[in-house]
Design goal:
Number of strands: 4
Helix content: 40-55%
Number of helices: 5
Number of domains: 1
CATH superfamily: HUPs
Strand order of the largest sheet: 1-2
Strand content: 15-25%
Radius of gyration: 18 Å
Structural class: alpha/beta
Shape: globular
């Protein structure tokens, strides 16, 4: 739903459409006498990270293909990043001077969204630019009136 909304907004306003996928990278602190310090644990962790990177690139390619084939949109470019997703999205928005950041709601309960910032809320609170959070219900879940 968020991808379709972004394509429609970009096409309707004649704006560029940039697509980003961020693979979360968590830096583990080393602790003395921890099982995580063993070579087998480090190899497993590195293998999992490589798998997540490959899956992230595949997802980004799939989303780019959907923009063009399924929604008939035109992508300006795609970006692959690693790090804290909300920080990387905001940083990229600043780098490309985005007029609007469109993101998908994670579908968490409203009370949890208020007290615990998830990805979408983190982008909303960190960004110095407009952020549109699109829910999975689309207009059905919106409090805005529809024009027919």
């Amino acid at each position: 739903m968020a991808l379709q909304a972004a394509v429609e907004l970009a096409d309707g306003t004649g704006s560029e459409l940039h697509l980003v996928h961020v693979v979360p990278i968590v830096v583990e602190r080393t602790r003395p006498y921890s099982w995580a310090n063993h070579s087998w644990a480090k190899e497993r962790s590195e293998a999992q990270l490589e798998w997540r990177k490959l899956e992230g690139l595949k997802l980004l390619d799939d989303q780019a293909r959907r923009v063009e084939e399924e929604f008939g949109g035109t992508l300006t470019t795609t970006y692959y990043r690693e790090g804290r997703p909300e920080k990387e999205v905001v940083r990229l928005g600043d780098e490309i001077d985005a007029g609007l950041i469109v993101t998908k709601s994670q579908g968490r309960p409203w009370l949890e969204r208020i007290f615990g910032a998830g990805f979408s809320e983190g982008v909303f609170w960190r960004a110095d630019r407009r952020v549109l959070i699109v829910g999975e219900l689309g207009w059905r879940g919106s409090t805005l009136p529809r024009n027919r």
